[in-house]
Write a sequence for this structure.
């Protein structure tokens, strides 16, 4: 077992670990740096703040992880989030439907839109970028249609509990993110479905030849991304007490960024939910940290852009070396 | 004195790849204004030799002499500037652009405005060139509107526009109709008259006698002979191509052959293959031979449900079956080791264990939840059974050697308990040791009553492992030979379409 190559500076097995957990290491370094740089950073209040801020991105990015592992991409999750958000707000405001049913209906709406992506991609062989770009545009239009172009405000306080309430002292959106992450983790690592997702991303043709129903899995993956977006829409609209048709603009990009920073390969076959969580945390800490240090929001965007680029370059440099 | 005439001389060219010696002291001499045929079985080294000439591969040793000068060719650009160009089997034109743009790509004529090229001059230049060669095309037409033959002509025009003295044509007639072939040959003769030399690679013996002046025969990376075509006849040529001594010992054992497992009747996939029928029995190894492009892989792909069948019927254990997807085939007990394990066999970024389980995930799951212990036990079983050399089942399969990767593909199908294993070029690109291990495993499978169909382009493998050989030629069944009947010559005769 311990046949480490003595010529190397760092023994092979450590090197492999280092490459595998590099983003975790970077996150750790960032936390240490911020703790030294700011007195406020490592306070319970600020930490919960960060987690609450990344919760919606964390939910979207979980679905996005599945999509990107199959070698696809989903640009429509921001729009789906808006549709579910306004739909939920509309139903809460204008009907007597119980909140629980509204919740489920909005999730299903997100899933239905996602499944449209899946069918277009898997059945009509439209490239995922194009298919989801189309739904990004159409979905946004749908959100405006439902809300008639105006935010739907002053919602039922019971509905607002979803986004504003707490359970065991922890904000509900955080609970939602935790639940989604756990379900995502179990699905991806411990079920046949998750394994098929990896196989398809690793080699779609080999998966097909091995008898896997590639189309079905792809449709399910985009549906899952849609359900996650739907949940994000509910959480957001109830937190801001408003179904905003323009909600979630560019959220798809944040989700993609979290997934990529978390080490998921855009060419498919590789990636984990844990990595995505780390990615979401890195984005959250950069934003939070720069706020604390009074960096202008404009510069924050520049830094974030560089971080995304750096993560991908680092991944490409170390890819294949860990095998 | 004769040297004067030789425009190209390749001397003692050797080239090795890991595990294979692709070229072994090969000589090739081409005279000015000669059509020189280069012939040999699949894998004889023709392509490798041409890649060395084009600078795509670096030879391990040997010299290239052009017009009496020693040259070094490091890349295709060097080759072009030395007057060598190649027309590939797969055309390299841009279909959505005009003929003129394709011919003069990268060398567009300048206009008066710096940085902007002149469209008019581009078309004029191209038209002029086409006229010179005697091709009646309008350079403003789009390449996608041309026939395959037309596109080939444009490739030739492009080659000539570089003022090439030597044009390599790799199977230029494989996609052409007879009239188109005549047209191509007419152009080739014209080029020859104007002093251009052509290296003509072909599998088609008749064509070679029609068009070529001389022939160099390669076999197993060595030159077997160089002859003037005037002194050469077909049987002699075939004997030269295949006449190797069969020294390889194959671990073939006599196995009791059982009932018919699979019967295929009149299988047709329009435009790909036609009216193919065969049977394979339990315990039997059926060899499927033929030249590249004969349609062997395509037949197997439809049987496995990867591509669809136009007509024909399949019987398994005497009952008619309908196979629409690979999953149907797997349920019937088929397994398929595809030709290209990287493209269709393995997920290279995933682990050995995961690749072995790819076709049998449901066996390790309880209500969709993976029971890790079951999966790992299973993968270890096959790693041991096939002696796959890997540090652990969790290692990325891409890091293993080709032979071990191939064994993992075998393991994937063994895990399905398949009753028919289709092996498409099972030992391509793996070293000698792993090869014989795979052959030994095939014998073991046959002993257990598995039916095996093996596609192979390696004659010794076909002869050494098959109980029966069927040969395809141009998408059709050409003949069947028993193990006792089969010889290299007989198979080659059938494979090139002779009876």
């Amino acid at each position: 077992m311990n046949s480490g190559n003595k010529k190397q500076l760092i023994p092979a097995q450590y090197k492999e670990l280092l490459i595998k957990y590099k983003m975790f290491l970077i996150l750790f370094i960032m936390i240490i740096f911020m703790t030294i740089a700011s007195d406020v950073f490592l306070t319970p209040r600020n930490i919960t703040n960060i987690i609450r801020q990344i919760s919606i991105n964390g939910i979207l990015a979980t679905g996005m992880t599945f999509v990107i592992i199959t070698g696809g991409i989903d640009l429509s999750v921001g729009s789906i989030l808006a549709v579910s958000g306004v739909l939920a707000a509309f139903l809460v405001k204008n009907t007597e439907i119980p909140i629980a049913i509204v919740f489920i209906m909005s999730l299903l709406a997100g899933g239905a839109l996602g499944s449209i992506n899946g069918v277009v991609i898997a059945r009509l062989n439209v490239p995922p970028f194009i298919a989801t770009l189309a739904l990004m545009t159409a979905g946004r239009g749908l959100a405006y249609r439902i809300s008639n172009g105006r935010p739907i405000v002053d919602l039922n306080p019971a509905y607002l509990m979803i986004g504003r309430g707490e359970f065991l002292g922890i904000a509900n959106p955080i609970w939602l993110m935790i639940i989604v992450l756990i379900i995502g983790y179990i699905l991806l690592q411990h079920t046949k479905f998750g394994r098929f997702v990896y196989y398809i991303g690793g080699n779609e043709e080999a998966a097909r030849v091995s008898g896997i129903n590639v189309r079905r899995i792809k449709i399910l993956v985009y549906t899952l991304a849609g359900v996650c977006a739907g949940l994000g829409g509910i959480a957001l609209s109830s937190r801001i007490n408003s179904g905003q048709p323009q909600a979630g603009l560019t959220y798809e990009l944040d989700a993609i960024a979290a997934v990529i920073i978390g080490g998921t390969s855009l060419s498919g076959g590789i990636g984990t939910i844990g990595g995505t969580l780390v990615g979401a945390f890195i984005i959250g800490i950069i934003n939070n940290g720069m706020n604390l240090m009074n960096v202008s929001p404009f510069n924050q965007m520049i830094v974030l852009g560089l971080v995304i680029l750096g993560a991908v370059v680092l991944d490409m440099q170390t890819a294949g070396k860990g095998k | 004195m004769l040297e004067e005439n030789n425009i190209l001389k390749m001397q003692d060219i050797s080239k090795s790849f890991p595990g294979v010696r692709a070229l072994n002291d090969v000589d090739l001499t081409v005279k000015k204004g000669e059509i020189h045929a280069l012939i040999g079985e699949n894998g004889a080294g023709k392509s490798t030799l041409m890649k060395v000439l084009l600078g795509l591969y670096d030879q391990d040793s040997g010299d290239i002499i052009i017009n009496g000068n020693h040259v070094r060719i490091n890349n295709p650009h060097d080759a072009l500037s030395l007057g060598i160009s190649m027309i590939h089997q797969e055309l390299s034109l841009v279909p959505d652009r005009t003929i003129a743009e394709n011919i003069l790509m990268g060398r567009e004529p300048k206009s008066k405005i710096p940085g902007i090229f002149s469209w008019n001059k581009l078309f004029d230049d191209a038209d002029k060139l086409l006229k010179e060669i005697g091709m009646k095309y309008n350079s403003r037409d789009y390449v996608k509107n041309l026939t395959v033959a037309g596109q080939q002509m444009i490739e030739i025009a492009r080659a000539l526009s570089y003022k090439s003295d030597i044009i390599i044509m790799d199977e230029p007639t494989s996609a052409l109709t007879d009239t188109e072939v005549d047209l191509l040959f007419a152009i080739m003769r014209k080029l020859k008259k104007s002093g251009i030399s052509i290296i003509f690679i072909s599998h088609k013996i008749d064509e070679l006698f029609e068009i070529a002046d001389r022939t160099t025969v390669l076999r197993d990376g060595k030159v077997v002979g160089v002859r003037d075509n005037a002194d050469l006849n077909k049987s002699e040529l075939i004997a030269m191509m295949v006449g190797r001594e069969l020294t390889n010992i194959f671990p073939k054992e006599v196995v009791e052959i059982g009932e018919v497992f699979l019967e295929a009747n009149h299988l047709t996939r329009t435009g790909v293959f036609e009216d193919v029928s065969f049977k394979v029995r339990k315990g039997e190894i059926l060899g499927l031979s033929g030249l590249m492009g004969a349609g062997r892989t395509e037949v197997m792909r439809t049987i496995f449900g990867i591509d669809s069948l136009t007509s024909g019927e399949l019987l398994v254990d005497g009952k008619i079956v309908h196979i629409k997807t690979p999953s149907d085939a797997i349920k019937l007990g088929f397994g398929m080791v595809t030709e290209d394990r990287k493209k269709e066999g393995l997920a290279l970024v995933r682990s050995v264990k995961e690749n072995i389980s790819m076709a049998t995930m449901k066996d390790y799951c309880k209500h969709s939840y993976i029971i890790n212990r079951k999966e790992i036990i299973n993968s270890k079983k096959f790693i041991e059974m096939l002696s796959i050399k890997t540090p652990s089942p969790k290692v990325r399969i891409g890091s293993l050697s080709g032979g071990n990767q191939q064994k993992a593909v075998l393991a994937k199908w063994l895990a399905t308990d398949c009753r028919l294993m289709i092996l498409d070029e099972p030992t391509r690109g793996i070293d000698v040791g792993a090869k014989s291990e795979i052959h030994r495993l095939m014998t073991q499978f046959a002993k257990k009553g598995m039916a095996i169909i093996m596609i192979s382009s390696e004659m010794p493998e076909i002869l050494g492992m098959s109980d029966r050989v069927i040969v395809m030629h141009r998408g059709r069944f050409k003949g069947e030979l028993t193990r006792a009947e089969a010889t290299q010559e007989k198979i080659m005769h059938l494979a090139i379409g002779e009876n």
